[in-house]
User: Fold this.
Amino acid sequence: MALLPILCYPDPKLHTVAKPVSAVNARIQTLIADMLQTMYEAKGIGLAATQVDVHQCLIVIDLSEERDTPLVLINPQLIWNSPETHLNEEGCLSVPGIYDGVERFDAVKVSALDAEGRSRIIEAESLLAVCIQHEMDHLLGKVFVEYLSPLKRNRIKKKMLKAQREERA
Ligand code: K1U
Ligand code: ZN
Assistant:
């Protein structure tokens, strides 16, 4: 297993649209293991392949306290969403230290392949529904700060660039 570097906003590579995974093979399974290790090490609850500069439709999530219940979604498709939405506080491993409210569907139903390539339907609500929507946005090249006002987004962009400059110095 390997720890993968996580792209940081405003890296333009975060806006790449991911391509479907054509086969769930050993290469994809190694990527899944590396993404899980990277997510656990970064103390995140989700990670999209886009964030590790792999532009394929693959997401890992683990909401368990014990960090032992991974959920793997390959080629996820939204097949249903609740009519109700809610403002939820979100964070992102690609935008460290920034938390803000984003309006998301309360519940979603998603079809996807699992780590063995089997078809699955996932019914999600609460934090799992929020996390799935956040990660599926990454696969479309969308970062949660794009839901915020241009003023907030520009402040965040400047803050991130300053932090990255200071890290390099
Ligand atoms: O995509 C990512 O960068 C992972 C992100 C997932 C996420 C968290 C919260 C709401 C939506 C999506 C994170 O794991 S951020 C870090 C974190 O563990 C966290 C942050 C806020 C609330 C709950 C957890
Ligand atoms: Zn994120």
Notes: The mean pLDDT is 98. The chain is about 30% helix and 25% strand. Residues 10 and 166 are 15 Å apart (CA to CA).
